[in-house]
Design goal:
The chain is of the alpha+beta class. Helix content is about 30%, strand content about 30%. The strands form four sheets. It has a seven-stranded mixed beta sheet with strand order 3-4-5-6-7-8-9, sandwiched between helices. It starts with a helix and ends with a strand.
Length: about 260
């Protein structure tokens, strides 16, 4: 199945519903103190909550039932040998709870990320912000959209501005190296947020630029890259778009541009 056929056979509404169901599972934990306090840590010392696990189970089950021939890489189920996955032309790249630190801080800036990757590039993405009840989604075929749970979808596109820019900074990961890069652009103001929301703000013209220095993982960026590119933007590491299904699933530094 080629890229065009893959997109034609992918049900965006199903993916939006899946993200919503995963978000509901997250919010059940978020709203209950007895569950919220159950926080463990992964081997790299990043927090793993019960919400991560419940969201992962929802997404994995639904994707495997609907698309049994397309494998899944998820942050909570990533231990698939490269010798197996290097043969994959298409796969789902999922972060069941992006922004776990923001979740633990209880600031609402966490998301569900679902992306479809083909030939090492994300071609479709869904991001859901559960506390805000807000979806961003897009594909190469249809463009990019923003939708609240109780309203119609609106098409979004990047600003195209090259001066007097608004730059997005990470809530938890801003570094001096990032500031050095951003100073080379004509920046008027900064906004700060967590998780993959940063991609969304560039995609809908709220911001124009986001630079990330240092490591992220493929599931942190795939959905955001798909949506931002569908909105007319770029996600570049050096002069090239980020690539996916690498032997090591870690990204280099990258920049998101709405121009």
């Amino acid at each position: 199945m080629n890229e065009q056929e893959l997109l034609q056979n992918t049900d965006m509404q199903f993916l939006v519903e899946t993200a919503k169901m995963a978000g509901d599972a997250i919010m059940e934990v978020y709203s209950r103190k007895d569950l919220f306090d159950r926080v463990d840590y992964k081997t790299d010392d990043s927090p793993l909550t019960l919400a991560d696990q419940r969201s992962h189970e929802v997404i994995k089950k639904r994707l495997e039932e609907k698309y049994p021939r397309i494998p899944v890489i998820s942050e909570e189920g990533k231990e698939i040998p490269y010798e197996t996955r290097k043969e994959w032309m298409a796969f789902w790249c999922v972060d069941p709870l992006d922004g776990t630190k923001e979740f633990i801080k209880r600031n609402g800036e966490f998301t569900v990320n679902i992306a479809l990757v083909y030939d090492q590039q994300p071609i479709l993405g869904v991001i859901y912000i559960p506390e805000a009840g807000l979806f961003y989604y897009g594909s190469k075929k249809e463009g990019a959209f923003k939708k609240a749970t109780d309203s119609e979808a609106e098409k979004i596109k990047v600003s195209g501005k090259k001066e007097d820019l608004t730059a997005v900074q990470s809530r938890s990961h801003t570094s001096e190296e990032e500031m050095d890069i951003l100073r080379s652009f004509s920046i008027k103001q900064y906004v700060t947020t967590g998780s993959s929301i940063k991609f969304c703000l560039v995609a809908d013209s709220t911001a124009d630029l986001y630079y990330r220095h240092g490591p992220t993982m493929e599931w942190d960026t795939a959905a955001g890259q798909a949506i931002l590119e569908a909105a007319g933007g770029k996600v570049l590491s050096g002069a090239q778009p980020l690539r996916y299904n690498k032997e090591v699933l870690r990204n280099e530094s990258f920049i998101c541009r709405g121009f």
